[in-house]
């Protein structure tokens, strides 16, 4: 068990500043009393923290105003507001064949975005890093932001990431994401880059802005092409010793599942198999080439028998998957996320009904409203967490005050 970190004045300053910024991120203009109530800090500490954060450029102190048409004795309350454009963070989703970068302000609002397909396959790390950098520059351009304004970057990859931020490259596919991205972007731009598993980021993102908001025990399953999951237990993201908590490779041994292929992949594959036969189906009217999952769901909505059979098979399979998760982890909620989530809503009733066959502790099942943005939303959340924890160590590109910060407050 690690030794507890001593509560030094420096640590207390850092924790207090992070708590204030976390509250300010979700608030409009607030008074010192509001901050005290939200953080539990004393008045003296709250004032010292807010004044220091103003000097550093993180907060703005607003002009005092009295209520219109009224009068109150005494000095008007001091009011502070987050300087939401003091810097930006980047949320990155590095897939096998696509890279997406989102630029966010310090409230988590999207300012710009860029997404580009990438030539899948074994490509040199330097080439892939250059591609990711180009997408990031395009996203910054769309947000009218400069590289020097970036306070942190979080990138999600389809591989386990250990506690030191290193990709666990013990499988060939995972090794494709072991690029050396962190030192490369630090050398090029001076950026701090956080690496995280994409399903873990999906769990952070959905718990922040999705179906799992406010739920402390939840598993989020990315379910489009391959199945992977992120686990939040007691409000904390679970990583495991080498970052592979939530890895679903065990599904290869689960009866009625047998692999980790996801909903989109299976819908497409089973549709192709049906079209190779002679059964009448509206799927034959789809454009030449492969039938996409959305077309299968649309055909099922119009009563197509082949498409309905595919949805029935998907519901049975996902019920088995969710059943194993519910048995082992006992979450309150299991969320199906990823690009296919919008269509998967029609599977919920069948999955929930069948769960009783596969587990004695069935969880509630939902689909994420975040769609294919779920990983970048989580990456933004992760980057903002880093910024709030380390605000006293980060130098803003354009601080709002000219006075040097006072190191003396406790």
TrEMBL record:
Question: Is Transferase there in the keyword field?
Answer: yes
One Pfam match: ROK
Example of a GO MF term: kinase activity
The protein's matches in InterPro entries, at most eight in alphabetical order, are given as: ATPase_NBD, ROK, Tscrpt_reg_IclR_N, WH-like_DNA-bd_sf, WH_DNA-bd_sf
Enumerate the transmembrane spans.
none
Q: Which domain of life is it from?
A: Bacteria
Ordered alphabetically, the record's keywords are:
Kinase, Transferase
Domain HTH iclR-type: residue ranges: 19-59
Family to which this protein belongs: Belongs to the ROK (NagC/XylR) family.
Q: What is this protein called?
A: NBD/HSP70 family sugar kinase
What organism is the protein native to?
Pseudarthrobacter enclensis
